[in-house]
Specification:
Structural class of chain B: alpha+beta
Number of strands of chain A: 0
Number of domains of chain B: 4
Largest interface: A-B, 31 and 34 residues
CATH architecture of the largest domain in chain B: 2-Layer Sandwich
Order of helices and strands of chain A: HHHHHHHHHHHHHHHHH
Number of strands of chain B: 12
Radius of gyration of chain B: 49 Å
Distance between the termini of chain A: 40 Å
CATH superfamily of the largest domain in chain B: GAF domain
Oligomer: heterodimer
Bound molecules: fe (ii) ion
CATH topology of chain A: Hypothetical protein af1432
Distance between the termini of chain B: 135 Å
CATH class of chain A: Mainly Alpha
Largest sheet of chain B: 5 strands, antiparallel
Chain lengths: 297, 452
C-alpha cells in the first residue's frame, strides 16, 4: 500500500470512538502518585457497573484476600493503587472494544482470550523480572493487539486478504500486513493508543511488541509484552495464534534477564509451568473481566 | 510550506534544548515537564499526524521520545528525592547502631511524623509463628488486634503479596472508618521474614500511593538493617565461640605465616613456660629444639600426622610433642602458612619410662625371691654342715683343714650378705661389668623396698 493509503488509515482512525472519560482520568492518574484512595474510589464509584465488577474481581480467588472487600476504598488500599488503576483502565478499554465487535472471520472470543492471557502473563513476568509497575505491564499486554481490531473493523477487505495469505504459508502475519496495508497491527495499534491519549509508554510498547529491539525508551516494557505474547500463544488461542509462532526473542529474554537453561537458550519450561499455574489462578478473574460487563450492562 | 514547517520546528527544538538544559541543571519541576508536553503536542498538531518517513517525521519522533524520557526521569527523580529525604535520617541513624531494638525504635521515630500512629509493633515470623521484636510493652487490646489479623490470615496474605496494606480498624464502621490497621511486610531478598503492624489514627481512604511507597521503602530499609544486625550478631557469636574453643583448647595451636612467623598461638603455650604475647610475630623456629623437624612445621609436604617435634620450653627444658600439621593454601595454589596442633607428650614419655622401671623392679623382685628360696636354704644347710665338720676337724687337730673350712664359711657368709643386699634393692641402677654389658649396682641397695 502506498503513502496515500497510509494516510487514509490515519484519517479513518479519527472515526473510531474515543475512550470514555473515566479511562482518560484513570490514565492521567497513572502518572500521579499523589492520588489518595478516596480520589481513586470516587472516580470508580461514579460507574455502578464498574464498581460491582471491580469488587467482584477484588473478591475473586485470584487475589485470595482473606476478608470480604466491601468498598472500593478498601480494594484500593488492599490490592494496591497500581493494580486498581490498571484494572479500571483495562475494564473500561475492554468494554469499549467490545462495543466495536469485529468483522467476519474475526474471532472475537479468541482475541479476548489472547489479550487477557497476554495481560496476565505480562503481569506475572513483570513480578518475576522485577519490573516496578506490574499494572503498566497488565494494561499494555491487554491492548497490545488492538491494531488487529482496527484492521478487521476499518479494512475488512484487506483483513480477509491478510487472513487468506497467512493461512496458506507459514509466514509472519505482521509481514503480510505490512505488504498489504503498508503498516502492521502493532503500528496501527500504537497510533490508536496515542489517539486515545493513553500514557506514552503504552503506545511505544504496543508499537514494538514484535520488535522489542527497536524500542528506544520502553525497552523493558516492550520486551515484557513481546515475551508475554509469545507465551500466551502456547496456551489455547490456536486460531488466534499469529499463524507463525516465532521463537522466543533472545533480545527480549536478555533485556528481562530471564533464566536460561543449562544448554544455553531460554529456559521456557521453567516459566511455562508457573504461567500455567498463574492462568489457572486467574480463571475466576478472567470470567469477571470477560462476561460480567455485558451481564450488568 | 516545508520551509515554514522546518523553521517552526527549529524554534520548537531550540525551546526544547533550553528545557533539556534545565533538566540537566536539576531545576526540574512539574512546570518543565508540562512545557515539554506542550511542545510535543504543538509539534504533533503542526504535522497533523503526517508522520510519513520525511525528515520532519523523524524529528517529531525524536522529540516525542525525548519528552517521554524527560518525563520519566523527572518522575523518577522526584520519587527518589522524596524517598531519600525521609530515609536520609533513618539511614544515617542505622549506621550508628546494630541493636535490633534501637533499629525498630528509629523506624518508628521516622514514620511517626508522617502517619499518626496510635500503637505499633514489629514482629518476626519463624516456623509459622510470630514473635515480637519491639517494643517490650504493648497493650492487651493491641495484642488482640495482632492475633486477630494473624488468625484471619491477613498477615499471611501481606507476607505473600510482599506489599503493605491498610484495612479498617476492627471497631470502625465499614464506610467512614476513622482509624486503620496498617500491615507492612519486612522483606529481604524477596523473602518476608516479619511484619510491622500499626494502629493508625488516619482514615484508610486518605492514604496515598506515595504514602505506601515511602512506608514500604522505610520498612525495607529497616528490614535490611535488622537483617544485617542479626547476621552481625550471629557472626560475632560464632566468632567468639570459635575463638574461645581455639583459645582454651588443651592442645597447643600455632598458626604460622608463609615466612614462618607466629601469627596465632593459643593459651596452651603458657604450659610451656611462655606468655602468648611474647611469641606473636616471632619466628616459630625459635621454639623448636631439633632443627631437623623444623621443615615439617614450615613447609609440610601435605598433612603431617603424629609427628614427634621437640619444643624448647621457656625455662629451657625440652617438651616432647606429637604434632598434626596442615598447609594453609591459597585457592590458586601455593602456601600462605601452616597450622600446627601439638600435644605435649613429655608426661607420656615420663610415664613410659616409669612403666619400664616398674617392670624391671618386678623382675628383680622375682629374682630376689628365687635367690632367697633357691640359694639361702641350701646355703644354710651347707653352712650348718660346715660348722659340724669344722668342729670335728678342730677336735682332730687338723689345722690345715680347719683353715680351709673357715675360708669356705667366710665365703658362704659373703653369699648370704649379697642375697640380703639384693632383697633391699630399690632401683635398677646398673654399673658397667664388661664393655656393653651392664650389671646391677647393688652397692646402693641399702634402702627399703616396697615391691613385695
Ligand atoms: Fe501482535
Ligand atoms: Fe499478540
Amino acid at each position: 500500500m502506498d503513502k496515500s493509503k497510509l494516510k487514509d488509515i490515519t484519517r479513518n482512525f479519527r472515526d473510531l470512538p474515543t475512550l470514555p472519560g473515566i479511562a482518560l482520568q484513570i490514565s492521567d492518574m497513572m502518572n500521579n502518585p499523589n492520588v489518595s484512595a478516596s480520589d481513586l474510589a470516587k472516580l470508580i464509584s461514579a460507574d455502578q457497573s464498574l464498581t460491582m465488577r471491580i469488587l467482584k474481581v477484588a473478591n475473586s480467588a485470584y487475589y485470595g484476600f482473606p476478608r470480604k472487600i466491601g468498598t472500593i476504598t478498601l480494594a484500593v488500599v488492599v490490592l494496591g493503587f497500581d493494580a486498581l488503576k490498571s484494572l479500571t483502565l483495562s475494564m473500561t478499554i475492554l468494554d469499549h472494544l467490545k462495543k466495536w465487535g469485529g468483522a467476519d472471520g474475526f474471532d472475537f472470543n479468541e482475541f479476548w482470550r489472547h489479550s487477557i492471557y497476554t495481560a496476565i502473563i505480562a503481569r506475572f513476568l513483570s513480578r518475576q523480572t522485577g519490573y516496578k509497575v506490574a499494572g503498566e505491564a497488565f494494561v499494555t499486554g491487554l491492548i497490545h493487539d488492538v491494531g488487529k481490531l482496527v484492521i478487521s473493523q476499518k479494512f475488512p477487505e484487506q483483513f480477509a486478504e491478510i487472513l487468506e495469505t497467512a493461512s496458506g504459508n507459514g509466514r509472519k502475519v505482521y509481514e503480510i500486513e505490512n505488504e498489504i496495508l503498508g503498516a502492521d497491527h502493532a503500528e496501527l495499534g500504537s497510533w490508536l493508543v496515542d489517539n486515545w491519549n493513553l500514557p506514552g509508554y503504552m503506545s511505544e510498547a504496543v508499537a514494538y511488541h514484535h520488535h522489542p529491539e527497536k524500542a528506544a525508551i520502553e525497552i523493558k516494557l516492550s520486551a515484557l509484552v513481546n515475551t508475554a505474547n509469545r507465551f500466551a500463544l502456547d496456551f489455547g488461542a490456536e486460531k488466534w495464534a499469529e499463524t507463525y509462532k516465532d521463537d522466543f526473542n533472545p533480545y527480549a529474554w536478555n533485556v528481562l534477564k530471564m533464566r536460561n537453561s543449562t544448554n544455553g537458550g531460554p529456559d521456557e519450561k521453567y516459566y511455562r509451568s508457573m504461567i500455567e499455574h498463574e492462568l489457572e489462578k486467574a480463571d475466576s478473574f478472567v470470567q469477571v473481566l470477560n462476561t460480567e460487563g455485558e451481564a450488568v450492562r | 510550506m516545508m520551509d515554514i514547517l522546518n523553521d517552526r520546528l527549529e524554534r520548537l527544538k531550540a525551546g526544547f534544548a533550553g528545557l533539556i538544559n534545565d533538566l540537566n541543571s536539576q531545576d526540574v519541576n512539574r512546570d518543565t515537564i508540562d512545557k515539554l508536553k506542550d511542545i510535543w503536542k504543538k509539534t504533533r498538531e503542526l504535522y497533523k499526524g503526517d508522520t510519513s518517513d520525511s525528515l520532519a517525521g523523524n524529528e517529531i519522533k525524536e522529540l516525542k521520545e525525548r519528552t517521554a524520557r524527560a518525563e520519566r526521569a523527572y518522575n523518577e527523580t522526584r520519587e527518589t528525592l522524596n524517598e531519600l529525604l525521609s530515609a536520609q535520617k533513618l539511614a544515617a541513624a542505622f549506621r550508628a547502631t546494630y541493636d535490633a531494638a534501637s533499629l525498630c525504635g528509629l523506624f518508628i521515630d521516622t514514620i511517626t511524623p508522617m502517619i499518626p500512629i496510635e500503637e505499633i509493633g514489629i514482629y518476626q515470623v519463624e516456623n509459622a509463628h510470630f514473635k515480637k521484636l519491639y517494643p517490650a510493652e504493648t497493650s492487651q487490646k493491641f495484642e488482640e488486634l495482632v492475633n486477630l489479623n494473624w488468625d484471619e490470615g491477613l498477615i499471611h496474605w501481606v507476607l505473600n503479596e510482599a506489599r503493605p496494606i491498610i484495612v479498617n480498624a476492627p471497631d470502625q464502621p465499614v464506610i467512614e472508618a476513622e482509624k486503620g490497621c496498617l500491615i507492612i511486610p519486612l522483606i529481604i531478598a524477596g523473602e518476608s521474614f516479619g511484619f510491622i503492624l500499626a494502629l493508625v489514627d488516619r482514615p484508610p481512604k486518605d492514604f496515598k500511593d506515595t504514602d505506601f511507597e515511602i512506608i514500604f521503602f522505610l520498612a525495607s530499609q529497616t528490614a535490611l538493617a535488622l537483617e544485617i544486625a542479626r547476621l552481625l550478631q550471629s557472626l560475632t557469636e560464632t566468632r567468639d565461640f570459635l575463638a574461645s574453643i581455639l583459645e582454651n583448647a588443651h592442645d597447643l595451636i600455632i598458626v604460622c605465616s608463609g615466612e614462618g612467623e607466629i601469627i596465632f598461638i593459643n593459651r596452651a603455650i603458657e604450659n610451656y613456660g611462655y606468655e602468648q604475647e611474647q611469641l606473636l610475630g616471632q619466628p616459630v623456629i625459635n621454639l623448636i629444639a631439633d632443627e631437623e623437624t623444623a621443615e615439617d612445621l614450615l613447609n609440610p609436604p601435605e598433612k603431617v600426622k603424629h609427628k614427634n617435634i621437640d619444643l624448647k620450653g621457656g625455662g629451657k627444658e625440652i617438651f616432647h610433642t606429637s604434632a598434626t600439621i596442615s598447609r594453609l593454601e591459597k585457592p590458586e595454589g601455593g602456601i600462605v602458612g601452616t597450622l600446627a596442633v601439638l600435644k605435649d607428650i613429655s608426661k607420656q614419655k615420663r610415664l613410659e619410662s616409669q612403666l619400664i622401671e616398674v617392670e624391671r623392679r618386678a623382675a628383680i623382685a622375682q629374682t630376689v625371691i628365687t635367690i632367697n628360696h633357691e640359694i639361702n636354704n641350701p646355703l644354710a644347710i651347707v653352712m650348718g654342715h660346715l660348722y659340724l665338720v669344722k668342729n670335728r676337724a678342730v677336735e682332730a687337730g687338723l689345722d690345715d683343714i680347719v683353715e680351709k673350712l673357715e675360708a669356705m664359711d667366710k665365703n658362704c657368709r659373703r653369699i648370704k650378705k649379697i642375697a640380703h643386699k639384693l632383697q633391699n634393692l630399690t632401683k635398677s641402677d646398673t654399673t658397667d661389668y664388661l664393655e656393653g654389658i651392664k650389671m646391677l649396682d647393688i652397692k646402693s641397695g641399702d634402702k627399703s623396698i616396697e615391691i613385695l
